[in-house]
Amino acid sequence: MSSEQSSAAENKLRIVVLPAHDEFSVSTRIFEITSILIASTLCVLLLIRSLPQILAHPTWAVFWILGVFVADFASGLIHWFADTWGHETMPILGRRLLRPFRVHHLNPNDFLRRDFIDCNGDVAFLQVPILVPVLFLLDRTPWGGAFGVFCLGLCGVGMFTNQFHQWAHQRSPAPLIRWLQDQGLILGRAQHRRHHRQPHQQAYCITTGWCNKPLELMGFFPRIERWVTCCTGLQPRADYHAFTSRHRTTLGRNSHCH
Ligand SMILES: [Zn+2]
Ligand SMILES: [Zn+2]
């Protein structure tokens, strides 16, 4: 076998042994479709009911922008938690939140084969418990209108966090997507590449990426990691390192056998 053929066979083998995202059951698929439909409907209802207020108070755009900032911060917090703490074997969260992020670091391209529903269903589900009380309180409290505009930014944009993340991995996104990325309106490709560099401990925010720089300047995540370790004795990324070395061992053993 020539060295070129040997290298091609090894690459093929590596692709086979890399961890991949779970294939979802029909019931999970129905849950995800339902979550997207409900969250989208609630967002449209919120937009329709907030529109007169927005037109009457154009400066309330500030609340919308603030909502997008909070969505980006929340994406970073959730991503950091999934990369840093917990065990892959934890009930529900382990399989649905922690493992996908761990697989994603070792095999980022596998994310590109997930379709719109698979990509956005779980994040849409998280918006429903926020949107329902907001719609209820909208006309019942003096601050309801402004809070509604804030939530339009938080949920309306935050709902598509995983979509923006997936687009940041595409080599050739559609021209409109590329334009939004280049303007910094959604997560940019270059910015997200920083997270995929070892040791994967920067640029956690994956909605717009707006919070990444300020949080890094504050040393935000290393500080709270030290605080969590001090209070609980837990070591950051303990399970993550175990997951990674398990797959590296598999790679090494298979390559050797070959
Ligand atoms: Zn990560
Ligand atoms: Zn990524």
In short:
This protein has 258 residues and is mainly alpha-helical.
Features:
single chain, 258 residues, mainly alpha, 12 helices, globular, binds zinc ion
Write the layout of secondary structure elements.
Blueprint: H1 3-17, H2 26-56, H3 61-84, H4 93-106, H5 116-137, H6 144-158, H7 161-169, H8 175-182, H9 189-195, H10 212-218, H11 220-232, H12 238-257
Bound molecules: zinc ion (2 copies).
One zinc ion is lined by residues 104, 108, 165, 169, 192, 196.
Structure description:
Mean pLDDT is 88; it is low at 252-258. This protein is mainly α and 258 residues long. The chain has helices at 3-17, 26-56, 61-84, 93-106, 116-137, 144-158, 161-169, 175-182, 189-195, 212-218, 220-232, 238-257. The protein has one domain (23-254). The protein is globular. The structure holds zinc ion (2 copies). One zinc ion binds next to helix 7.
Would you report the number of β strands? 0
Alpha-carbon distance between the two ends: 12 Å
Low-confidence stretches: 252-258
Share of β-strand residues: under 5%
Order of helices and strands: HHHHHHHHHHHH
The small molecules bound here are: zinc ion
| Shape descriptor | globular
